[in-house]
Amino acid sequence: MTQQDIRPPASAPLALAEQAAERRPLISYVLPVYNEQDGIAAFHQELTAAFDGRADLDFEMVYVNDGSADGSLAILKDLAERDDRVRIVDFARNFGHQIAITAGLDVARGDAVIVMDTDLQDPPRVSLELVDAWREGAEIVHARRRSRQDTFFKRTTAHLYYRVLRSSTEVDIPLDTGDFRLLDRRVADELGKYREKSRFVRGIVASMGYRQTEVSFDRDERFAGETKYPLRKMAKLAIDGVTSFSTVPLKMITRLGFLVLALSLAGIVYALAMKFFRPEITVSGWTMLMVVVLFLGGVQMLSLGVIGTYVGRIYSETQGRPLYLVREVIGGSKADD
Ligand code: UDP
Ligand code: MG
């Protein structure tokens, strides 16, 4: 099964809009799961407890099992059996958090779609505050972290990163927001048209426009297990964020080129002056030679790396491979009729 097969037919949103007048709005949750066996049941319980009091709304939950290697899928299947508001999209392998979110958005049918983590770091009760902001007219509601409980390293790097990202791109990416947000059906449909591979969903959403607002919250600690974002994945996401929205790194190469040119002009003048006025010491220039060769080598490698990153993106986009592969979609009998 490929991504095309599981996306609802194009007419579905229209039909939903027509019915919306007579029925309660449906809120979909898109919930990426990767090796969360120790916390997922508690998460599900807290989520359902949070919205059970809301008789004015209907809910569905789309869990995307992103190739978990632990018992997460079995627990999810159990949840789906007992609750027909639960659907599971089971990936053929681990495709990564951003792709898992994308698949969930492709499948979700709600009038509004909420994306949130399944480790209880994004508190379920806050998601209902997002719904309230949506009902007041917002089309995109970002949940902004007023405070967070992560490690010092993660907090400082994230803090710095969001500021660098904002200053290097023309997109007004809201500060300190992850992927916890609500999207109106119209926005979710439009977002579905963005099929780029190395994706930075929060940046794409911010770039889309519409009526955007934010709700602040205090981010909790992870309920169970370890972060599924080791440094390597964090670095990839960070690079995807910058390269998706900015060519500033390429422009920096040009600037660096000018700087090195200016330095080398000074070097040339110095070398010639030494040759003509102090010929007795020109042979002892080994240190200078090494410094110059290594410096230029480093600058060139760095520049090639930056260009290579962009070329790599072009390469993977032109391959046109599907974003994800699904083993099966499980559950959700109620939402099908
Ligand atoms: N996740 C995923 N695929 C991955 C890595 C993470 O679906 O390859 C999910 C994970 O289960 C969680 C969310 O993405 O629901 C955020 O991951 P995590 O909490 O580990 O990131 P952190 O909060 O530490 O940045
Ligand atoms: Mg987390």
Automatic annotation (TrEMBL):
Protein's cellular compartments: Membrane
Keywords attached to this entry: Glycosyltransferase, Membrane, Transferase, Transmembrane, Transmembrane helix
Name the UniProt record assigns to this protein: Glycosyltransferase family 2 protein
CDD domains noted in UniProt: DPM1_like_bac
Pfam families cross-referenced by the UniProt entry: Glycos_transf_2
TM segment ranges: 256-277, 289-311
Span of domain Glycosyltransferase 2-like: 28-191
EC annotation from Swiss-Prot or TrEMBL: 2.4.-.-
InterPro entries, sorted: Glyco_trans_2-like, Glycosyltransferase_2, Nucleotide-diphossugar_trans
Entry similarity comment: Belongs to the glycosyltransferase 2 family.
Gene3D superfamilies, sorted: Spore Coat Polysaccharide Biosynthesis Protein SpsA, Chain A
